[in-house]
Structures are given as C-alpha cells and as structure tokens.
Amino acid sequence: MTTRPHPTTKQLLDQFNTEPDYSDASQDDAEALSRDRIPVRSLTAADFDAVVRIDRRTTGHDRSAYYRRKFDEALGESGVRVSVVAEQDGMVAGFLMARVDFGEFGRAATAAVIDTIGVDAAASGKHVGRALVSQLLANLTSLHVESVRTEVEWNRFDLLRFLDRCGFRPGQQLSLSRPLV
C-alpha cells in the first residue's frame, strides 16, 4: 500500500488562492474572457472604411462593393444585429460579420451564419479573432440561437485551424454547387 504525502500549507494556500483562467482555450469560448481583454462592440456604419482597409490588406483586393452590400444588410435589412468589431488602441483591429436566420431549407431552427471575419495583420496573434468569436457566441447564446455555422474554402488551413480551436466542427450538411458557365 502506498501513501500519499500530505500537502504542505503553501500547496493548500496555492490551491485556494489560484484564480481560474477563464480565457483558457479548452473552455467554452462563449464563457471565455478574451473578449474582455480586447474590447468588442457592435458594428456601425462608421466602421466601413476600417473593415475595407483590413480586408484589402488581407486579400490584396478592393472588395468595397461587397462590403457596401454587407453593411446595408447588417445595419439596415436585418432585424437582429450581430456583426461585431474589435478595437485595440482606439482603432478597429478586426471584424466579424454574421446574420441570424430563422429557418431555411425547410428547417425552422434558429441559426447564425458567419459571413466574413478579418483581423488586421498588425493585430494577428493577439487573440483578436478569438475575442470576436467569443463575443459573437455570447451574444447568440443570449438570443437563444441554436447554432452557428460558416463555410470555409477547403484549402484555407489557417482559418480551419482557428475555427477548430474555437469549437467549430464539420456539420452534417453537404454544400453542393454547379458551375453555370
């Protein structure tokens, strides 16, 4: 029979004085506090230029017409605004554009769809993306949204790894497409 040594007083005090790390990646992101370290707020019309700038730096393309449509949808057409931006030093450091669908393809389930996510290269690796997703998940949970989904190009391994770390898994639906030309 083996006996375990009794813990020292210091070990006992350390056990009770250790503050939990709620930003731990193994925890549920909706509960994580990475969003508290990086301010995340709702998207506004004033964020348009910053979003286009971040996207242009990331993709190398001017997609301002696309973002004009997405902003119109997010700020004018949607009854539920869920798109968010993250700030660092008073500047937009990242954005996440999403919408809530109240059923599609014959299903009546409430689901959110992430359309676009972007993080400024200067903020890369500073948990901006995680803060954006964390805040989105917290907002969607409070709205009683049942699930969130997105689509990713099959060879965007960096984005797939990020979404995997945020708890996303392959869904049960198969997306089909057919070229018309």
UniProtKB/TrEMBL annotation:
<keyword id="KW-0808">Transferase</keyword>
<feature type="domain" description="N-acetyltransferase">
    <location>
        <begin position="38"/>
        <end position="181"/>
    </location>
</feature>
<dbReference type="GO" id="GO:0016747">
    <property type="term" value="F:acyltransferase activity, transferring groups other than amino-acyl groups"/>
</dbReference>
<protein>
    <submittedName>
        <fullName>GCN5-like N-acetyltransferase</fullName>
    </submittedName>
</protein>
<feature type="compositionally biased region" description="Polar residues">
    <location>
        <begin position="1"/>
        <end position="20"/>
    </location>
</feature>
<dbReference type="InterPro" id="IPR016181">
    <property type="entry name" value="Acyl_CoA_acyltransferase"/>
</dbReference>
<keyword id="KW-0012">Acyltransferase</keyword>
<feature type="region of interest" description="Disordered">
    <location>
        <begin position="1"/>
        <end position="28"/>
    </location>
</feature>
<dbReference type="Pfam" id="PF00583">
    <property type="entry name" value="Acetyltransf_1"/>
</dbReference>
<dbReference type="InterPro" id="IPR050832">
    <property type="entry name" value="Bact_Acetyltransf"/>
</dbReference>
<dbReference type="InterPro" id="IPR000182">
    <property type="entry name" value="GNAT_dom"/>
</dbReference>
